[in-house]
Design goal:
The chain is built from 10 helices and 9 strands. It is of the alpha/beta class. Helix 1 crosses helix 6, helix 2 packs parallel to helix 3 and helix 8 packs across helix 10.
């Protein structure tokens, strides 16, 4: 069981860390009432629940119950429940700027000045800061920097959870809305105009051979593989967890399918989690490609 408590100053990036952990397969609960924490830990530690990774967000929103947390954490340790505390910190100046940008009110402000609320919050959270396993100062961090820091703590989680999905589609049915990279392969030889291939798809070997045998197709594949090898490590560094490559021809039945399949095979050398989807392969293709 990996049990992580994410805490720290309001506006320092706790929600971002919880989102990162959720993307890595953690069961995340934000702002869980302190009195429920011990019982929740007991429930999740049972093997029959099949929960191996949990992240809990606790901060100053717990208000008066926060004083109970020290005792709750001690009870959890005595019960044999191990946990990791990540404390997110940030300079008061940057926190005030972030609050002004989002126009949100601080939980302790209640009509008072923001600076005074931050001082009170630091005082109330000091015991948690002292118990923390990791303290991350986000004052000068961008989201990608914070993501990299969290990945360092959990060793390679970003590499393991990065997923590449290759989608073939037909332009006459629209470009996939979730596409990160869109490649138009309508410049390649079209099997639609070959009688013995017209009613087949890019999943058939004859169509695949016809599409990929041209010099243009071979050069295109080499350039795409090289491009992906360059981009993917940089996307991971940026904090992305997935990449959708959309490959389109007119109808989404022949060329795009053959290229998507071939690209999926070629990119296996990058040792990433991958999938291929042919969005429009079963649509009516009576309209010539």
């Amino acid at each position: 069981m990996s049990f992580v408590i994410v805490t720290g100053m309001s506006g320092a990036g706790k929600s971002t860390v919880l989102n990162l952990l959720e993307d890595d397969g953690y069961f995340c609960v934000d702002n869980l009432p302190v009195p429920f924490l011990e019982k929740f830990a007991d429930m999740t530690w049972h093997e029959e629940n099949n929960i191996s990774k949990v992240a809990i967000g606790i901060d100053i929103r717990s208000m008066k119950n926060l004083s109970m947390l020290d005792g709750v954490l001690r009870n959890m340790r005595e019960a044999g429940h191990t946990y990791t505390i990540i404390f997110l910190d940030c300079s008061d100046q940057v926190l005030m700027r972030r609050y002004k940008e989002t126009r949100r009110s601080h939980p302790l402000a209640s009509g008072g000045r923001l600076g005074e609320a931050l001082v009170k919050e630091r005082q109330k959270l000091e015991f948690l800061r002292e118990q923390s396993d990791y303290i991350i100062d986000t004052t000068k961090m961008k989201t990608r920097d914070l993501a990299a820091q969290v990945r360092k703590i959990f060793e390679g989680a970003g590499e393991e959870r990065f997923f590449i999905n290759i989608v073939s589609f037909g332009y006459k049915y629209g470009i996939p809305e979730d596409a990160d990279i869109v490649m138009d392969v309508r410049f390649l030889p079209n099997p639609f105009y070959v009688d013995e291939l017209k009613h087949r798809t890019g999943n058939d070997q004859q169509v695949r051979d016809y599409v990929l045998e041209s010099d243009d197709a071979r050069e295109f594949m080499a350039k795409m593989e090289d491009l992906c090898a360059f981009l993917i490590p940089r996307y991971i560094q940026e904090g992305k967890t997935s990449l959708v490559i959309a490959v389109g021809c007119t109808g989404g039945k022949h060329r795009s399918v053959a290229i998507a399949n071939a690209l999926c095979e070629a990119l296996k050398s990058l040792h990433r989690n991958m999938g291929v989807e042919h969005r429009d392969i079963g649509r009516d293709t009576r309209i010539p490609e």
